Amino acid sequence: MSGNLLRVQPIRNGTVIDHIEAGRGRKILDILELGNSGTTISLLINVQSKKQKRKDIIKVEDRELDENEIEKLALLSPNARVNIIRNYAVADKKKVEIPKFISDIVECPNENCICNNERGATSNFRLIDEEKIQIQCTYCGRKIEEESINFL
Ligand code: ZN
Predict the structure, then answer these.
(1) Do residue 53 and residue 116 come from a single domain?
(2) Cα torsion at 45, 46, 49, 54 (round to 10°)?
(3) Residue 5 C-alpha to ligand 1 middle, in angstroms?
(4) Distance from the CA of 57 to the center of ligand 1, in angstroms?
């Protein structure tokens, strides 16, 4: 029996997030709250890959990620790939791209910021550095780096 075959066992319907930066899979599960969705989730850690040295893979059965989740994913692992699976086949490939404007998914660390105080205000960030993943609040100008991003 090939262990490899077991590892790549396909899912019938759902989402496969591939090429996740190794070690990021757990965090992605957490932040996207995939574990709470009531469906079967598989997390593969440190999978050997030709493109990168190691990668993580997440398989989410019976659920397709929405745009909002893909934006969060982009901030966590910009090189990830999202494949939507329907009836064992790849039905759609979603481009994982950090949007130029990030609306309502990241918390501004400035507690005096209007987006933390005004009722109904949504947070808005502008991508200022795609390489380092640095974003800036469009209200107060506070800049945050990848490692200090808090998701709403
Ligand atoms: Zn702000």
Answers:
(1) no
(2) 130
(3) 48
(4) 33
